[in-house]
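=== RUN LOG ===
request id: a7f3
mode: sequence -> structure
chains: 1
length: 211
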Amino acid sequence: MSWFHSSTAPVDARNHASPAEIVACFQDQRQLLGKLAFLITGDQATAEQAIVAACEVTLRGNSPFHDWLFEWAKAATITSAISQRAVAIRLCGSEYKARPCNHAEHLLQADAEERAASLNRMLRADGQRVIAELDPLCRAVLVLKVAIRSSIQDCVIRLNVSRAAVLSANCRAMAWLHDCQTTPVETITPLQVPPDNVGTGSGLEQSAHSK
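=== RESULT ===
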């Protein structure tokens, strides 16, 4: 099958993001990625470490397609942040096993407009308030469902907790998100970070130079 790989490799290379483009994406979207990571980790320094780790993993692995680079960056950052809080997330799982969800609407897939509005509300919400009102498992489920449209089963696999725990945590997270609808929000655009921003920027730049 060598003929197959040799004939498709040049085409794939043109469709995939370069190392410089990967680093640029993580830098340009760092504020948004940082908010997602912070909502999961509950700590700013740990959230920034998660972004750097996600960028490094992306640089070491198979390069994502250009069109999916931002979605890839979100997923990689979320995965990295979850790994930072894995123990705390699993500990919360036992607390939700006996809390069934009776809201069928919490399992429905929202349309594009509703998903955008939910992401908007989550990103606009005060991070400290989210951390105070939701435990690590709820926050992780919230970010997975809203930011990258994860299914319940995907959350079970990513978080390494029972399906019953995810269903219950999702119920609480979706109820919390619904309560946020009382606060008007504006349409969010990709959040930009000034070039001279410090913190994870140096880590991302070092990752780029090391490749």
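=== NOTES ===
Residues 10-190+198-209 form one domain.
The chain has one domain: 10-190+198-209.
=== END ===
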